[in-house]
Each structure stands twice: as C-alpha cells, then as structure tokens.
C-alpha cells in the first residue's frame, strides 16, 4: 500500500532522529546531528546511495525486491476469480485471501525492531525473501484452501519485513525523495505486471492458476540471491551501534540513564499522538483510502467478469491499467502538487475527480472503453493521496510526535487495505458483487469529508 515518505523539508525532524548507521556498510555508522544544525549538515551526515560502492548494489537489490513486493500485492485481485472457481467457495470465504496477509504484516510490525537489532538487515533480507520463496513454492503446489490462506500469511510476513526495511533505509538516505520515487515506481511496476501476467497465462494459454506461482517463485529466488549477496555484511551489531553507545556522559551509568529518559520520551510521544485528535483525522483518512486502493484492485476483476460479463483477459487488462494509473499518478500528480503549493485544494480536487470517475464507471454499464478509462483515471487520481496525507499529518503534529503519529498512520493503512476488501467480500456473499460500486462510492465520499475536516484543522498550520 502505499508507502511514500513526506518531502525533505517536512521530514527534517525525522531525519535528525533516524538511525542510519546500520545500513551504510559493514562496520560503518553514520551519526546524525540533532541540535540546531543546518540542513546541509544533516544531508552531509546521511548515507549516500553510491558511497560506499556496495550501497549502489544494495539499492538496485531493493528496487528488484520491491518489484516482488508489488507483484505479491497485485496478484490477489487477479487470481481471486480463479481461486473461487478452483476451490468452489463463496465470496465470504474467498475474501480471506485479502485478510490473511494482514496477519503477516502485523507480525512483521511487531518483530521488525527485534529482528533488526539482533540480525541486522542481513537477517531481514534472508527472512523476508525466504518467506516469499517458501510461500510461492507452496502456492504452486495448489494445496487445500485453508492451507493456502496460511501460506498467504507467510507471504504477507515477507512483504511486511521487506516493505518496512527498504522504506526506512531509502528514506534515511541523502536525496531520499528521488530514491523513494524510484523505489515505489518499481513497486507499482510489479503490481501492474502481476495481473497482466496472471490473466494472460490463464486466459490466453489455458494454464491453471497455480502455474503463475512458478514465475513468482523464480522471482523470489533471484530476490533471495540478490539481497543475500548485497546485505550479507549488514549485521545486527552494526544495526544496534547507536543504541548501545554511551550518550551524554562517559560512564555506562550516565548512558543508561539517558537511554531510559529517551525511551520515556518515545513512550510519551506515542501516548500524546494517540490523544491528539488531529492524528485520528488523518489516520482515519489513510485507513479508508488504503481500503479503497486495495478493494478496487482486489475486486474489480471479479466485478467485471461476474457482473458485467467482461472476458477474463479484458478484466486483467483493466486491473493492470488501474495499477499503472496509480503509479503514474503518484509520480506526476505528486510533482504537480508540490509545484502548485496548494495542497489542501489540490488534493480535494483529486478526491472529487475520483468520485466523478467512479460515478461514471458505476452508471455506464455497456461500454468496456468507458470502464477501462474510468478505472485507469480512478487509479491515477488515487495515486498521490497517500503521500499527501502523510505530509498533512507531519504538518498537523508537533515535531516530537512525528514518528509515533506516522507509525500509527502506516499501521492503520495496512489494516484498511486488508479489512475493507474482506468486508466487501462478506457483503458480496449476501447481496452479490454488485455492491462493490456503492461501497467504494461511500468510502470515497468519506475520504473527501475527512480531508475537508483536516483542512479546517490545518487552516493555521498548513
């Protein structure tokens, strides 16, 4: 789901507290200034993508890894129709496909810090890509459906580990905005190619759905090789260097007392961010937005085939163009929003465009051209909403609450991307898949209202 950090200016407070040492190179740390230093001093202290040379290969490996991460997310919507036919299950049971990866993401969120501290990025790279490989090989064996659901939990665990690790690493680098754009561009590439490849393989070449996972397993194997080779020297001891160094004193006792005070500040910041109403306005927006993004990707194929009689190949093309539109929108409209410097009104315009595109799609039934155009444009205008909402959250919260508040927002975003597709599946089981347009419309209108409400709160700060 979306996973783009705010602009450089907005994230300076985050960069001052970032632990960038673990990813510079083996046995190499990088101290980030925290006082009243200039942006230039902060930038000079950040890890660079091409220094040392190993970082160039690491960045390329993370880009390839994000193709697999994106392909994993883009696969569910493309295969859900074929899974329903193969296992002869209803929509409610079928929607577990969307809910199960959320469990893996949750486990990843709970264990990420511990894994980094003890095994470094080498451990994350091995475990994350290993989960991918094991999940895809197991899926290719077309196990019973309950087992397949558990396998998707494993795939979600791999995605959660790698998603967080590479976002944090790239986001803590010098020139992070451009690098993050490339990183998420490769995510979008994977998410766009997955449904096109799957539907072409199944519809045009007559292969069973599980043969698609042969390709995913091959990609995961290459991912495992690339990440292992490039991050092998990124050990846990390096990742924990800054945490174990004595601070504000030469003695161990003074360093321990400082770390205890720092831990108390983090806990206090988390509590304050939860109590801040502004946090929940944007977090609720992100929760619903992520639900829209994944629900459309997950159920549009099934809706077009079952409700409108579209061929499987055409529905796969629509799914591909939706992801392609979302990726292009995130890049193009992101630059446009930054250029116009009128975030509140510009994002509201994107939301209204989403409502308009979806309304046309819902009301015009007989034209495939209209369907493919409106769904593509819907993805295009949805694209920049997640990063802009994170930037809005940064402006809403005091600097000391940025990390805790954004952590809550990203967690809720992942939850929304799992919960809403599951709810739609449960509703479709009762009323048919025709409920999809109405549910998406209500969610888009809710997002528009929440953005308007956040604009009122932001009036004096944004």
TrEMBL record:
Residues 58-462 form the Major facilitator superfamily (MFS) profile domain. Pfam families: MFS_1. The chain crosses the membrane at residues 59-79, 91-111, 123-141, 147-170, 182-202, 214-234, 278-300, 320-340, 347-368, 374-396, 403-424, 430-458. Keywords: Membrane, Transmembrane, Transmembrane helix, Transport. It is found in: Endomembrane system. Signal peptide: none annotated. GO terms for cellular component: endomembrane system; membrane. PROSITE patterns: MFS. InterPro entries: MFS, MFS_dom, MFS_trans_sf, MFS_Transporter. It is a multi-pass membrane protein. Its main location: membrane. It comes from the Eukaryota. GO terms for molecular function: transmembrane transporter activity. Belongs to the major facilitator superfamily. PANTHER family: BYPASS OF STOP CODON PROTEIN 6 (PTHR23514:SF3). This is Major facilitator superfamily (MFS) profile domain-containing protein.
């Amino acid at each position: 789901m979306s996973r783009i950090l705010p602009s450089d200016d907005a994230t300076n407070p985050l960069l001052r507290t970032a632990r960038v040492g673990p990813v510079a190179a083996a046995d190499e740390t990088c101290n980030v200034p925290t006082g009243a230093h200039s942006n230039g001093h902060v930038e000079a202290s950040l890890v660079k993508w091409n220094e040392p040379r190993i970082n160039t290969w690491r960045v390329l490996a993370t880009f390839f890894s994000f193709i697999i991460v994106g392909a994993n997310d883009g696969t569910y919507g493309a295969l859900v129709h074929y899974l329903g036919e193969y296992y002869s299950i209803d929509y409610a049971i079928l929607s577990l496909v969307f809910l199960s990866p959320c469990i893996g993401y949750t486990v990843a969120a709970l264990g990420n810090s511990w894994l980094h501290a003890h095994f470094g990025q080498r451990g994350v790279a091995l475990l994350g890509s290993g989960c991918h490989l094991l999940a895809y090989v197991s899926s290719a064996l077309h196990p019973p459906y309950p087992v397949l659901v558990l396998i998707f939990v494993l795939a979600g665990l791999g995605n959660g580990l790698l998603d967080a690790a590479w976002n944090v690493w790239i986001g803590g680098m010098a020139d992070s905005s451009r690098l993050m754009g490339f990183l998420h561009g490769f995510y979008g590439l994977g998410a766009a190619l997955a449904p096109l490849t799957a539907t072409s393989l199944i519809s045009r070449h007559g292969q069973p759905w599980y043969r698609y996972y042969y390709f995913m397993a091959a990609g995961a194997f290459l991912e495992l090789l690339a990440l292992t080779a490039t991050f092998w020297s990124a050990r846990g001891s390096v990742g924990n260097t800054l945490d174990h160094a004595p601070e504000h004193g030469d003695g161990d006792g003074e360093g321990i007392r400082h770390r205890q005070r720092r831990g108390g500040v983090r806990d206090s910041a988390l509590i304050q961010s939860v109590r801040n109403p502004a946090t929940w306005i944007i977090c609720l927006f992100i929760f619903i937005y992520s639900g829209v993004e994944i629900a459309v990707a997950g159920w549009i194929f099934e809706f077009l085939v079952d409700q409108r009689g579209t061929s499987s190949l055409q529905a796969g093309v629509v799914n591909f163009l939706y992801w392609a539109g979302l990726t292009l929108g995130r890049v193009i409209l992101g630059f446009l929003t930054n250029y116009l410097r009128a975030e509140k009104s510009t994002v509201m315009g994107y939301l209204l465009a989403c409502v308009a595109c979806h309304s046309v799609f819902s009301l015009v039934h007989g034209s495939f051209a209209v369907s493919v155009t409106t769904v593509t444009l819907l993805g295009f205008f949805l694209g920049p909403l997640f990063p802009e909402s994170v930037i809005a959250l940064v402006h809403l919260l005091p600097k000391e609450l940025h990390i805790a508040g954004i952590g809550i927002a990203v967690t809720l975003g992942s939850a929304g991307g799992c919960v809403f597709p599951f709810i739609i599946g449960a509703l479709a089981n009762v009323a048919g898949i025709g409920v999809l347009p109405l549910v998406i419309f209500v969610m888009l209108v809710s997002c528009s209202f929440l953005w308007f409400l956040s604009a009122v709160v932001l009036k004096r700060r944004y």
